[in-house]
Design a protein that fits this description.
With 305 residues, the protein is α/β, with parallel strands linked by helices. The protein folds into three domains: 89 residues, Winged helix-like DNA-binding domain superfamily/Winged helix DNA-binding domain (Arc Repressor Mutant, subunit A), CATH 1.10.10; 105 residues, Periplasmic binding protein-like II (D-Maltodextrin-Binding Protein, domain 2); 92 residues, Periplasmic binding protein-like II (D-Maltodextrin-Binding Protein, domain 2, 3-Layer(aba) Sandwich). 41% of the residues lie in helices and 21% in strands. It is built from eleven helices and twelve strands. The strands form four sheets. A five-stranded mixed beta sheet has the order 4-3-5-12-6, with helices on one face. A three-stranded antiparallel beta sheet has the order 10-7-11. Helix 2 packs across helix 5, helix 3 crosses helix 4 and helix 6 packs across helix 10. It is elongated, with a radius of gyration of 24 Å. The protein starts with a helix and ends in a 9-residue tail after the last helix. About 2% of the residues have low confidence.
């Protein structure tokens, strides 16, 4: 087992200790910021690597085997050593500096994040932001990005971070057309929708299932383009409220639909979460976006112009 021990990372030692301290997976998941299934899978991988069981599974919880006790004792010593070194270095920690690669999508950047990034740069002028626009999840393990800002209800299990808001969606039309719209015959209107590549979105599925194909007159693969198309009068369609409510030329036809919403997450790789520039950006984003929660969840005052 000695050779196998050398292959374990500090995060794996910490995970074993967390399970031991919590006497189970749910408590360990809460302590480490991982979800239950990830903790279960990683423990299985560690035990396979070591070739021995570290815990006995009981209804009342997880109990350490003799091998597990040795691992936890080693993890405790390592934790104490690292804590001691961290305390010594804390007073000498440099200000956040260097390049920070951030991935998000175009709609979040243009309609929400650009002024926040500007404010962050004023606060941390030594941090250089490299923003990568993508609707796909980049590989943070391979450093394709350091921080991901994503609207999703299923964040990747291998990342850590925080949920900072809920993004609501509602049905919008061009303001000058709204008075002429029969709310009992919406499906007879011309509709605009995201393309088939976005069929996982509930609002896209709704249009596919309830609107006749000949009434879906315009499809595209960008939410920014969707809002522009609605504002020009091509048709009606669903938009995130923070985008639709921010355009004077648009008006909501219905209240936000709770089932169409998604959580907004700020995520990073576990190995990067303690890096000064990553930590300060994630904290800054949580504070600044938190102040705009009403705009994002559709509850902000929308007094007419």
């Amino acid at each position: 087992m000695t050779d196998a021990l050398q292959a374990l990372s500090w995060d794996e030692f910490r995970l074993i200790k967390a399970i031991a301290d919590a006497r189970g997976l749910p408590g360990a998941a809460a302590q480490t910021g991982l979800n239950h299934s990830t903790v279960f899978r990683r423990l299985g991988q560690i035990e396979t690597t070591l070739g021995t069981m570290l815990f006995e599974r009981h209804r009342t919880g997880y109990a350490l085997t003799p091998a597990g006790e040795e691992i936890v004792a080693l993890a405790t010593r390592l934790d104490a050593d690292i804590t001691a070194v961290t305390r010594k270095l804390a007073g000498r920690e440099l200000q956040p500096a260097g390049e920070l690669r951030v991935t998000t999508n175009d709609i979040l950047l243009v309609s929400l994040l650009a002024p926040i990034f500007a404010a962050f740069r004023r606060q941390c002028p030594d941090v250089r932001l490299d923003v990568v626009l993508s609707n796909q999840s980049l590989n943070l393990s391979k450093r394709d990005a350091d921080v991901a800002i994503r609207a999703t209800d299923t964040p990747p299990e291998n990342l850590v971070g925080r949920r900072i808001a809920r993004i609501a969606w509602a049905l919008y039309a061009r303001r000058e057309d709204a008075e002429d719209i029969d709310m009992t015959a919406l499906h007879a209107r011309d509709w605009i929708s995201m393309g088939d590549g976005f069929a996982a979105m509930k609002q896209v599925r709704y249009v596919q299932e309830h609107v006749a194909p000949e009434r879906i007159v315009y499809r595209l693969n960008t939410v920014l383009g969707l809002s522009e198309a609605i504002e020009t009068g091509i048709g009606i369609g669903f938009l995130p409220c923070f985008l639709g409510d921010g355009r004077p030329g648009l008006v909501r036809l219905q209240p936000p639909q709770a089932e169409y919403g998604s959580d907004l997450w700020v995520l990073t790789h576990p190995d990067l979460r303690h890096a000064a520039r990553v930590r300060v950006l994630m904290d800054f984003l949580a504070d600044e976006i938190g102040r705009q929660r009403g705009l994002l969840d559709g509850t902000a005052d929308r007094s007419p112009d």
